[in-house]
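User: Quick sanity check before I run a bigger batch. Here is a single chain. Can you write out its predicted 3D structure?
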Amino acid sequence: MAQCTVRTATVVGVEAVPVDTEVDVGAGLPTFAIVGLPDLAVQEARERVRSAVRAAGYDVPNARVVVNLAPGPLRKHGTGFDLAIALGLLTATRQLPTTIADSCVCVGELSLDGSVRAVPGMLAHALAARSQGRPLLGPAEAAASLAIEGLEYLPIAHIAQLRTGVPETGRPPRRSVPTVPNDLDFADVVGHELAKRALLVAAAGGHNVLLIGPPGAGKTMLARRLPTILPALDDTERLETALVHSVAGLDDVPALAGVRPFRAPHHSASIAGLVGGGSPPRPGEASLAHNGVLFLDEMPEFGPAALQALRQPLEDGTMTLVRAEGRLRFPARFSLVGAANPCPCGFSGDPDRACTCAPGAVERYQGRIGGPLMDRIDIVIDVARIDPALMLRDGRGECSASLRNTVALCRERALDRDGGPPASLRGAELLAACAMRDSARRFLEEAARTKHLSGRGVTRLLRVARTCADVAGEAAVGLDHLSEALGYRAREGG
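Assistant: Done. Predicted structure follows.
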């Protein structure tokens, strides 16, 4: 009888929880059992490991093999246990020295020919190995995205390489990724000066925006250019964002390079697809947009339940899922940008085309977003169609690079003042940052009563006003900043 324990992990939410892979090879009928609450993918590792070990030139023991994944009560899922099981089996049968299993944390899926593949959540496994102070043994194809400080990564392309002992540390250079989209620019947008100003304010303060206008007015064009004026992710944001993308099985290299995510799900998205869920739970579009932009085109067409599920992440910056086995928390701090037609036909209030909607249809259509969600949207802008003569003129507007410099300057002012963007301020901290005079306070009180603003509405109005003051380079929030912020909360005619 021989035993071996190999360290690995399983992903729970966006965190890799340590798991010990205990392999026991003993006398008895030739069987291969995996215990410890494995899912179907883990159970299928028996066949993958057998074929991979044989293809790599090792011997498959004709004995009773039991693999225990500890701790037992924790559910295990995915194909990342393959490498740990194979390493434990080969070490227990003395085909490999114990030094590899004793020194490393390992993760990887095995193909039938013995090559090692990456699995979703490689970055989470890397952070777990770093926290344990151990090197991570994993697939060579993932080495480019795991060049993080404090981690020793041991790349392996095929399990036959283990015959020579522990692989050498490898860290190939990351591929070059532009930090902002280089094919989109605000200079291409003709007109829409108010909308561009509103998006500048939204980018500077991290505010939520709703663009309302007829079909073809340019709502989607404006929204897709918002990431071009956002600064690159800082070091902390890069790791947070890349971790979510890695767990979801997406390419995490752009996030590690500083690219802010831009997610634009279709309006048929389910609740789980939008905010996370499934079995095992995976991050949804709201979490994939963490530290970036979540764009909901045709926002009223989304399911009411899916839209209302966004209320918690918009308020708290996290998405908490409660399941029978416990609570999972996914990061979801993003700027929401919605686009909507004013009515089902799209031409309510249009000066050139008559609305063909039935009486009451306009109110029902606009009500699909819901008052509680609208209360969390800081800026609402009407986007009208542009005169064709203006579109055909030569000349370009202010470019994204110039606007991005303004946004970066505003965010620097916010950091110097109170340590965060205005959208994250609340309570006494927000009032202190605004530093309003008595005249501005009286104006705000009267506006709140007249417009019937809720407490949340007043807070969000102050946040936008603080951002407007930052754009203007003013230390205190004045009447003009409050007036601009108030104008963003009320549409003309509704």
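The first strand starts at residue 2 and ends at 12.

User: Great, the batch can go ahead then.
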